Hints:
The protein has 122 residues and is an alpha+beta fold. It has one domain (8-120). The chain is built from 4 helices and 2 strands. It has helices spanning 8-14, 30-51, 105-114, 117-120; strands spanning 69-77, 81-90. A hairpin with a 3-residue loop joins β1 and β2. α1 (8-14) packs across α2. The protein is globular and about 40 Å long.
Amino acid sequence: MKSNITTIQEAFIAQGIDPNVRPDVSMLPEIDKVPTLHEFERSVLIRALNSEGLDKTWEPDYTDYDQDKFEHVYYYDEQAGWSLHGVGDWRSYTLCGSRRVFRTREIANYAWEQFPEYFKNL
């Protein structure tokens, strides 16, 4: 897959968000600060990749059974750590996680290959 988004900064710019702005997490317990920031960045990244080349931001429609949604399926190995087991194709089932779905299998694979740190640190 060819994408113009190769950095997290480019994902922010593609979504019209200042790449230097992050949510204020100062009021959160220390243990929650970094995961909250990572989730925000991951959300922007997925939205940007899903919307690339479209006229508007792509949002999954969970009322549309016919709309494909793709999700990473991870595998953990004690020696190698986390790796991508595959990309699952979901419909509007309750099994499908709503925060990290991709518009196409190619986008899901590209996201893992280009930005693995955003998915290994869930």
